[in-house]
Design goal:
Layout lengths: L6 H10 L18 H9 L3 H14 L3 H11 L9 H4 L9 H20 L2 E2 L5 E2 L1 H19 L74 H28 L7 E3 L10 E3 L5 E4 L10 E6 L5 E4 L6 E6 L5 E2 L3 E3 L8 E6 L5 E4 L9
Parallel strand pairs: 3-5, 4-6, 5-7, 6-11, 7-12, 8-11, 9-12
Antiparallel strand pairs: 1-2, 8-10
Length: about 375
């Protein structure tokens, strides 16, 4: 008996088995949000190839950023079933803490996607560079699904209709589910925290799951999204044109930035991240003669800040689109010299502020 699968069936199956995002904090070799890592794991291709395709589309016709943001919106974290785009369509009180963070990210991603979807042509005519990139993304996704329709076992979180998985096992032991979620079903290796991990006969014990969430009626938000789209399109062409010019003219774009001031005169008032990682290492600073206020602002990539151990520090933190490991407070206030007021603002990517082990927060 031959079963004919319609176009709608294929699209539905593509969505049901779409890849998860695997960011760096969950074991992926991710540069930004884990989109390319997740695509590589789902369709068993080198994630570097996926990254190259996104970068090439960004610098050829300028729509790669919109395509990447769309993929980010539609892909849940590894271990989760809720993607940012689906989280914003649900009431906030029905979401778990990890899903609430995805909801916040979803609204920001939707705004940035709208702003990067269109731009001006050389003759002043409006066209959508993002439309071509999104079309290529969807076409490539279709081809990848035709090549590998079944996901590896243990990659997708448990859903209402489990999908058939690959017959050959795939090593996913380096990946960890999002905080507050369980390991996806089908993993052949136990979690690293499992005391029975050395006993193969105990690997089939069920993972602890989340408590059932109450089912509530979905709010009608799409009219508001449509109004936001109309308002944002008026500013999208100017914003994207300026952003594209900035990408091509600024030589700081597209590389990692590292700052290690070793004297008070080398200390800058503002450290700005671009596309790539930003590291600000203040551990070599001697005591300050005067007090300083320094702002560290993330861009499109991870941010790492190392606090000094011989300077009074007042730390404030402001979240962006990404995980933030930053404990506000006053540190080392008994040290001599001026006080360093450090303001850390997240961008699009994870933020980590490292405090010396012998430097606890005072309040």
């Amino acid at each position: 008996m031959t079963t004919t699968q319609t176009f709608a069936d294929t699209v539905s199956r593509m969505w049901a088995t779409r890849p998860p995002r695997i960011p760096a904090e969950q074991g992926g070799n991710a540069k930004i949000a884990g989109v390319c890592e997740g695509i590589g794991a789902r369709y068993q291709i080198d994630p570097t190839i996926v990254r190259v395709l996104f970068v090439v589309s960004l610098f050829t016709f300028g729509g790669g950023l919109a395509a990447y943001l769309l993929a980010w919106m539609c892909m849940p974290r590894y271990g989760m079933t809720t993607a940012p785009i689906t989280a914003i369509s649900r009431r906030k009180e029905t979401l778990s803490p990890p899903e609430s963070r995805e909801r916040t990210a979803g609204w920001w991603l939707l705004i940035f996607f709208i702003l990067t979807f269109g731009s001006f042509g050389t003759e002043g005519a409006l066209f959508s560079s993002g439309l071509l990139a999104v079309g290529l993304l969807l076409g490539t996704w279709w081809l990848l699904h035709q090549r590998t329709p079944q996901p590896p076992a243990g990659l997708l979180a448990e859903r209402e209709e489990p999908a058939p998985t690959m017959s050959a096992p795939v090593d996913l032991s380096g990946y960890y589910p999002a905080e507050g979620t369980a390991f996806p079903p089908g993993r052949e290796t136990p979690p690293s925290w499992d005391p029975l991990g050395t006993a193969p006969f105990a690997w089939d014990l069920p993972e602890p799951g989340l408590p059932p969430q109450p089912v509530r009626r979905k709010p009608r938000i799409w009219p508001w999204v449509a109004l936001g789209l109309v308002g944002a399109l008026s500013a999208a062409t100017i914003a994207v044109g300026v952003f594209g010019t900035y990408l091509y003219q600024n030589d700081e774009i597209g590389r990692d930035l590292t700052f290690t001031p070793a004297a008070e005169a080398e200390l800058q008032d503002h450290y700005q991240g671009e596309i790539g990682s930003l590291e600000v290492d203040l551990r070599q600073l001697p005591p300050l003669d005067d007090s300083h206020t320094v702002r560290v602002e993330g861009g499109l990539g991870p941010v790492n800040v190392h606090l000094p151990s011989a300077i009074p520090v007042t730390l404030t933190c402001e979240e962006g689109l990404g995980e933030m490991d930053c404990a506000e407070g006053t540190y080392n206030d008994r040290s001599p010299g001026g006080t360093l007021t450090l303001q850390v603002e997240g961008g699009i990517g994870p933020v980590k502020v490292t405090v010396p082990r012998d430097l606890p927060a005072q309040d």
